[in-house]
């Protein structure tokens, strides 16, 4: 750091603030912003990100840089409009910049953005009360953090404090976050292996296989590997919207009671209506001991996560309220957004909308997949958490890129383009769904035209290695 560097930072920060203050940019300003954003990401954030987001770099003369949005559509800085079928991987349940959520945050911003940490901040109590009213079973207490992975970390910690055990059972291909504790639960080697060793006494079983869970619990008991909790997503999101058998969650509840371990439902992605029920576990009428939430909890406006439990389990925190703390978790701005998000979800019937629109979307995608079974292997999911499964990564990427060029934002499940997730805002309209379906058909037809040459065949599904 030098004096010249500080002067340059002062100049650059003011120029960036000027951009923030402008509701829209002229053509030359927009082009400058695109070029600056790409350069900043490549030089100062992560050059690999530009390569991974190929649709950004291949969008035309200028990369796509997001700017503003409302409902289920958004515009990039050059003014091109897109239908959002990604929803921030579950953040935008209420759509982009829902006015009630934005208004709540703006109003709170004028009073107090952050808490004193010493006095009682009212919005934290209000949000905890609301969550007690809408969570399943006897869950009553909440702790607020800034993200989903922190919520999972907190859930793991309270489970260990309450049970005085250290082990966990999770699912193969499950996703729970990338901080070290939650990463230990995540069932994907691509994320786990580079950071090994992780939290020990973690066991993974096939998702949806209750017999495998029971076998692991029985072995753990016999050899002394004390298990604190079984941790599962109600429906696996990053694995491709994988729905378990209908008896899986009821069996988990029974097994956890029998073996005296806790059941943790990771609802970071599935909660607040995404799957057509308020919580994913509501599909099977199961009440977990601990539940996590994040993503949509902030209404698409503020980051916030939460882990919640019953009074019996929460007693370990009540007896020592400083054993787990967060300086900025549960701040008034985030709580204001979450209170508004819960209100809007209930007031606008978004859970019911997700169920109805999800059925419509899935039925039409299944029909498309049946017509094009040379490239599709399956359509999975519930509500508006849907997975399109293709025969290989290349086909999946071409579908995602083709839709992007036609004004639909969609993406593979993290590093896997073989499964393309459909996860739009719950406020997406039927007309917008129909537009996405039509553009999907156009993309498939263009793909067939490109690859259908003499001697060219698609790889059949059974020959593809997962």
TrEMBL record:
Transmembrane segments: none annotated. It comes from the Bacteria. One of its GO terms (molecular function) is identical protein binding. Keywords: Aminotransferase, Pyridoxal phosphate, Transferase. GO terms for biological process: putrescine catabolic process. Belongs to the class-III pyridoxal-phosphate-dependent aminotransferase family. This is Putrescine aminotransferase. It comes from Dictyobacter arantiisoli.
């Amino acid at each position: 750091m030098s004096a010249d560097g500080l002067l340059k930072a002062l100049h650059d920060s003011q120029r960036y603030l000027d951009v923030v203050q402008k509701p829209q940019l002229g053509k030359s300003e927009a082009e400058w912003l695109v070029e600056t954003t790409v350069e900043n990401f490549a030089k100062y954030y992560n050059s690999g990100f530009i390569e991974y987001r190929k649709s950004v770099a291949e969008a035309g003369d200028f990369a796509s840089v997001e700017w503003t949005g409302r409902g289920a559509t958004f515009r990039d800085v050059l003014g091109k409009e897109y239908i959002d079928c990604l929803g921030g991987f579950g953040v935008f349940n209420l759509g982009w910049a829902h006015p009630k959520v934005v208004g709540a945050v703006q109003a709170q911003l004028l009073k107090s953005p952050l808490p004193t940490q010493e006095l009682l901040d009212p919005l934290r109590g209000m949000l905890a009360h609301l969550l007690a009213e809408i969570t399943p079973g006897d869950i009553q207490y909440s702790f607020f953090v800034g993200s989903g992975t922190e919520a999972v970390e907190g859930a793991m910690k309270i489970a260990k404090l309450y049970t005085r055990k250290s082990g966990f059972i999770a699912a193969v291909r499950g996703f729970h976050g990338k901080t070290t504790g939650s990463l230990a639960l995540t069932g994907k080697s691509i994320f786990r292996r580079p950071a090994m060793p992780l939290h020990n006494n973690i066991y993974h079983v096939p998702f949806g296989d209750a017999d495998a869970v029971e076998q692991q619990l029985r072995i753990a008991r016999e050899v002394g590997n004390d298990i604190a909790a079984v941790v599962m997503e109600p429906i696996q999101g990053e694995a491709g919207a994988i729905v378990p058998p209908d008896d899986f969650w009821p069996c988990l509840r029974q097994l956890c009671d029998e073996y005296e371990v806790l059941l943790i439902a990771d609802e970071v992605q599935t909660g607040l209506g995404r799957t057509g029920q308020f919580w994913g576990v509501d599909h099977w009428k199961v009440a977990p001991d601990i539940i996590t939430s994040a993503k949509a909890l902030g209404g698409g406006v503020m980051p916030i996560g939460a882990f919640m439990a019953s009074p019996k389990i929460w007693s370990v925190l009540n007896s020592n309220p400083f054993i787990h703390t967060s300086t900025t978790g549960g701040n008034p701005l985030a709580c204001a957004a979450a209170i508004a998000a819960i209100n809007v979800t209930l007031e606008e019937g978004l859970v019911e909308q997700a169920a109805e629109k999800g059925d419509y979307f899935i039925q039409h995608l299944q029909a498309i997949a049946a017509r094009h079974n040379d490239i599709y292997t399956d359509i999975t999911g519930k509500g508006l958490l849907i997975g399109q499964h293709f025969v290989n990564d290349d086909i999946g990427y071409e579908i995602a890129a083709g839709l992007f060029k036609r004004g639909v934002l969609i993406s593979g499940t993290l590093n896997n383009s073989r499964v393309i997730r459909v996860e739009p805002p719950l406020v997406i309209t039927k007309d917008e769904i129909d537009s996405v379906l039509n553009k999907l058909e156009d993309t498939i037809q263009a793909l067939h035209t490109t690859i259908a040459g003499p001697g060219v065949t698609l790889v059949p599904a059974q020959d593809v290695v997962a």
